[in-house]
Model the fold of this input.
Amino acid sequence: MPLFKSCPAEFISQLGDRWSHWCDSAGEEQVATAEALLQDDSLQLALARSFIGSDFLYQQCCRQPQLLPDLLQSADLGLVAIDIDALEDEGALDRHLRLLRNRVTAEVIWRDFAGQWDIPRVCLRLTELAEQCIQAAQVWHHRQLVARYGVPRDRDGNAQSLVVLGMGKLGACELNLSSDIDLIFAYPEPGETDGEQSIENQKFFQRLGQRLIKSLDALTADGFVFRVDMRLRPYGDSGPLVSHFAALEDYYQTQGREWERYAMVKARPVAGDEAVAAELMELLRPFTYRRYIDFSAIDALREMKALIQRQVRARGLTDNIKLGRGGIREVEFIAQAFQLIRGGREPALRERNLLKLLPLLEQDGHLESGSAARLSAAYLLLRRVEHALQAERDQQTQTLPADEERRHRLAFALGRDGWQQLQEALTEARVVVEREFDAVIAPPEEIAEPSAAEEWEGLWLSCADDASAAANLRSLEEGGYGAPREALDLLADLRGSPMVAALPAASRARLDQTMPLLLAAAAQEQEPLLALSRVLPLIRSVLRRSAYLVLINENPPVLSQLLRLCSASPWIAEQLARHPILLDELLDSRRLLAPSSAADIADELRREMLRVDPADLEAQMEALRHYNQSQSLRTAAQEVSGVLPLMKVSDALTWLAEAILQQSLELAWGQMAEKHGVPPGTSAEDTRFAIIAYGKLGGLELGHGSDLDIVFVHDADPQQYTDGASSIDNLRFYTRLAQRLIHILQTRTLSGPLYEVDTRLRPSGNSGLLVTSMTAFEKYQRESAWTWEHQALVRARPVAGSARLCADFERLRLQLLCEARDENKLREEVVAMRDKMRAHLDKSNDKNFDLKQGPGGIVDIEFLVQYAALAWAQRAPSIVRYTDNIRILESLIDAGLMPAHQAEHLIDAYKAYRSEGHRLALQQLPGVVNGDQFTAERKTVQKNWQQLFG
Done:
């Protein structure tokens, strides 16, 4: 029968011989079954590829003839669980493990060459095989040792068990056909066994580890299961085979090296008690993932890659698709660089599996759009070729064959028309990997132009040397530093500081690399000395966390952006010096300078909070603060860069505050609900609680560093109680909810507070209840509120909490503002309050003008607007629909209550004042200007004041 019509002519003879040999090994029934199944052309092709491409598969089919019919008629032979109780002795265990391994390995080769399974599924099955074999061997030998020595226990009598960590590809569920398995053995605590022939736990688990390795690694007549590599354990081959948890923790904290961090990224428990294993992983996490953004990891990866490349050159491994340029290891390095750098702050990046990790990196903006798909495709091809190389003879190799016949066999097994086609595909894939690798990890000198900083190196190294002062002053002056002596003193003060003297050698080297780059980049700024002086506090603040210096050294655009922003605003410089983690925001100038909508900000914050352990309040509070600082920095950068005009800056800062308030409220609600239950009739969507914004937040006019004026309202029955075990009445619940919310906002953590909160605008001020029912709020506003409190209500709006209650508040606000008022009395009270404020707060004098409180300033405009709103809203309710002054003025025009030219003059003056106020805030200067400024605007406002108030 024509079994071989799918086989190229050059392989027909070999395939015929192998088919005949299998038929001789098999029974008639097995041959008949196989021949009947092979009427299917796709199965014929699968047989040809498998028998030609894999000597190992062919040999296994001959040793176990039933295997071929099973493969032909099944989509998955599965993993049969090992029945430990049925095993007679250690020899039976070893034989069972090896036969299972051979069958599974043969199957994954068949499925791969037949095109039935993709590489991830192949790797997963091999990983499952390894886990099952490790667990079976561990359980078997643990029983034997317990029977001899008793159960190992700690000093308190608790039973102890061995935890096996799978490293590398085993840990990542990416195991190869012929992979070694890298393991680390650990147990919780020292102690001894409880048998008559008692031994220390260390000896017990060491013997268990040795026997486990032997069952997997020893070569018998049935082959081996897995080669076991224990060199990743502490101290490598010279260290103990097994360590208790405290010893492991101490080693990694005091002696762990960067390459061990790299290895630990993929570590995963593959055997042992799950709870104990989870405890071990938590102990190891701080070593693997730093809490800060750790760019020093790139240097470590470069060193590892350089070592590998030296080995490649020395051993002529250029055709090695794992270690050579553009190979598998470079794809792994790309992914793990981002894991080590950012995994401490972005838990999602702790994903061990590379193919799952790459899309996450692109999704979070760490890889360019399309990179994940390109790298994944290249990686899958490289891994498939690697598997085919190893499938040939069950050997651990990643080197492409030099022999022409083997090349063609490889190409045919992989479904290619010939070696040239496969080689072209491999070349294309390796070029993709090489390009992406160089973009992420290549040494800076390989990707950057020769540094202009070289001429500044000598100056930095000699800046504290009096003998070099004259030459250094001349260099600084020629470099554009207008006051060279001041610049030199700044540099000498830094270089000679005790903090620098105490730096470890690696940190000192990073500083010596950074400073010439900084001097060269500052010299390109409009005011080099100003730029230098504002950035040096940041340099000082990161000396003990020199990974941030690596970030600057690695990313020349970051340094340029840093100097530009710090030159424009000392507020930005101060924020970066206080919170160096914000340097990360400068990495992507497109993201830094891209304005965000309210929805963008809320969604991004929500995603950030999802990354944090919901049970870790401290981490949640830090996440809120980090996002607030990073988004504020982005907004400030957009402002000083001219990307955002004044009104949009206030919008962005207001949207940020609203998003922070909503997330903080959800956090506080969750804590209160967990402790006390919730009030009747509430839900996550309707908490019957709302946050009302007043002042700048209410008027969408927040500036950098603004306080939040907020009031809390609820509409639950105060006489009812929450439904939790620790039940309290509703009023106390909402009061504590507000207190918890204020605590989240105001507490000074390591990152400072979120916002300062002012709740004095609530009914009755500081003497009133912190949280007011809607009924009580309405009663107070109608019967007891002062005129200035109605003025404040003009700028009030709900910003977080129950959407239903927010809508109710909006309706009540409109009703209150639209009530009829005695205009003469209103006028008198507004003027009296303004006079009182000016007397106490105005900082104007003969030479200076207070932008906010001065005559004709911001507050005068606000009072004009508030009077108009209160006096005329009954006639035109539309004028109080909005809470910001500019839109109220525009509404007055639309309602015909104010001439267009008059309102537009007030709008222009208001914008001019606020723009200058924002500029001064970013310069950390008071809101007072020279008395010669804004004369026209002040006259306009004062004229309008006289017309309205007399």
Notes: The chain has four domains: 75-288, 296-447, 646-816, 818-949. DSSP finds 42 helices and 14 strands in the chain. Residues 63 and 847 are 102 Å apart (CA to CA). The domain at 296-447 is CATH 1.20.120.330 (Four Helix Bundle (Hemerythrin (Met), subunit A)).
